């Protein structure tokens, strides 16, 4: 597990140094970019990012300060808030994505043999099935 922590740390430091976007902020922006209208309810975004609502709210506030995300009251019920990736945020994400992809390639995939990559995929799929089922049960 320490190796994954080192990998995460390296990716975060490189992404932040080269783009000014931390890995945590990058993940929020990726999640928003992959949805219709580039928007999600804050509660859904917190779930997708495996984050507490308070931690996510703080991060979204920092992204708002940069003009990359904006909040809007949910029109469906008037209670919830939407986080919306702005055009400026999407442009920043497009600039950061190649840096992130290159880091993952250089620090992970280039270090493994094809057999190791296949084994990692198998382990990942097994864990995902198990942990996703447990997350559903915990709701």
Explain what the structure shows.
- There is one protein chain.
- By secondary structure, this protein is mostly helical.
- The chain has a domain at 20-97: Arc Repressor Mutant, subunit A (Orthogonal Bundle), CATH 1.10.10.10.
- Helices cover 68% and strands 9% of the residues.
- It has six helices and three strands.
- A three-stranded antiparallel beta sheet has the order 1-3-2.
- Strand 2 and strand 3 (81-85) form a beta hairpin.
- The longest helix is centred in the C-terminal third of the chain and has 25 residues, at 114-138.
- It is globular and about 50 Å long.
- The mean pLDDT is 92.
Annotation keywords:
single chain, 139 residues, mainly alpha, Arc Repressor Mutant, subunit A, three-stranded antiparallel sheet, 3 strands, 68% helix, globular
């Amino acid at each position: 597990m320490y190796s994954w922590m080192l990998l995460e740390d390296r990716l975060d430091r490189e992404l932040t140094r080269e783009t000014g976007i931390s890995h945590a902020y990058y993940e929020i922006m990726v999640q928003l970019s992959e949805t219709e209208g580039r928007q999600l309810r804050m509660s859904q975004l917190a779930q997708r990012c495996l984050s507490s609502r308070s931690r996510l709210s703080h991060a979204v506030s920092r992204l708002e300060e940069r003009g990359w995300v904006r909040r809007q009251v949910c029109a469906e019920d008037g209670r919830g808030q939407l986080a919306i990736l702005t055009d400026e945020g999407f442009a920043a994400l497009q600039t950061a994505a190649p840096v992130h992809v290159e880091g993952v390639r250089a620090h992970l995939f280039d270090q493994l043999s094809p057999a190791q990559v296949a084994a990692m995929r198998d382990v990942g799929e097994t864990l995902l099935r198990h942990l996703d089922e447990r997350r559903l049960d915990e709701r």
